[in-house]
Amino acid sequence: MNRKYDVAIVGGGIVGLSHAWMAAKRGLSVALFERTHVAEGASVRNFGMIWPIGQTAGHDLEIALKSREFWLQLKADKVLEVEECGSIHLAHHQDELELLNEFCKTGTHGSEMLTREQVLARSAMANPKGLLGGMWSETELRVNPRVASTRIAKWLSDKLSVDLFFGTTIHSIDNHVLMSTTDESWIADQVIVCSGSDLQTLFPSVFSTSGLRLCKLQMLKTKISTGGLDAMKQSPAPHIASGLTLRHYSSFQNCDSYSAVKQRISGNTSELDQFGIHVMASHFQNGDVILGDSHEYGDQISPFDKVEIDELILRELRKVICLDDWNVIERWNGIYAKHPSLLVFEEEVDAGVRIFVGPGGAGMTLSFGLADRAWKQWN
Ligand SMILES: Cc1cc2nc3c(=O)[nH]c(=O)nc-3n(C[C@H](O)[C@H](O)[C@H](O)COP(=O)(O)OP(=O)(O)OC[C@H]3O[C@@H](n4cnc5c(N)ncnc54)[C@H](O)[C@@H]3O)c2cc1C
Questions:
Q1: Could you read off the pLDDT of 322-339 as tens digits, one per residue?
Q2: What domains lie within the chain, and their CATH numbers?
Q3: CA trace torsion 191, 23, 194, 281 (10° rounding)
Q4: Fewer C-beta neighbours within 10 Å, C or N terminus of the chain?
Q5: Is 334 a pocket residue for ligand 1 (Cβ < 6 Å)?
């Protein structure tokens, strides 16, 4: 039998790291187990957008803003670069402009309308053709997802003495004993399973009745040339979201003018609904531009990416943004688990043994806040 810990966490993605942080800062001894040697799951495959603007006003937005505070703390502690870039939603259709206007008037998210000229003054990426205006929000952050998990894990180990067991797959948890596939074992008072989209290895029967669904997203990367970078108006460059995004995030759905946007897009471009396509762009200071995305659920998920989806994403992006180089330098997909109605699926399967998975497409935005709320409830 290996060491005993106060808390054992399974999964080294952003959800597992969030719980490790909250537990360790309470002075508890923490072990974190991650199957791969370097995290490879959804937490490294995303846009790196911390996106409070997409969360419904009230409880969900508060969780996102709480998470934002933790990201800024990591920035202050020099754990990783966190850009306070804000975001611009572009309106290339009159109904999009009306929806953004209505949303701003609610005052829930502190966003403000921009004229066409103001958008173009802040973003070199916004396509001026057909641009009617936009919406500015200052709460959004950018982190580099390729390095964030690794940096946070190292910081947790160095500063908060979290023991990291990378390259260790936990195959069973019984009576608070965690067994690895190499027959090592550990015991912990509390166990938190943050296994992301892996719903098969541990507690498959709980997952099969949980309502959780898997969702696959296709993503692309381009690179802006140095000249293009120099042309950026606002630095750091704001995240860009299109009118299509207005039908994707829950924050806009209570507005009266929401249905007009949704119906126009469904009526004119049903292929976008078929693959859950909306388009966003995040421009990193090294010139990388991450573009996406699509959403295919459950049985629709194939191991093979669809060229058709990539082409639709690029077609829609070309309508709303300008890049000096559209050459795609990377393509990948990511899969996350999502519950249809809960912000995250949480279940205590045994006293002190909890499953905590499925923040869907907002895990980077919500995980610190969700873990903070959970630990306040549990202790
Ligand atoms: C393409 C894409 C784009 C996205 N964009 C954004 C965005 O911009 N902003 C945002 O807020 N959210 C975004 N999301 C959502 C966000 O990335 C996820 O919600 C989040 O990363 C989920 O974190 P996680 O820790 O649950 O999962 P993961 O990152 O997948 O981590 C789970 C980990 O558990 C490990 N594991 C599983 N089972 C075991 C076991 N038995 N033993 C040991 N280890 C195990 C896995 O190896 C994995 O590393 C995006 C998601 C995708 C896929």
A1: 998 899 999 999 999 999
A2: 4-44+146-210+341-378 (3.50.50.60), 87-137+213-338 (3.30.9.10)
A3: 180
A4: N
A5: yes
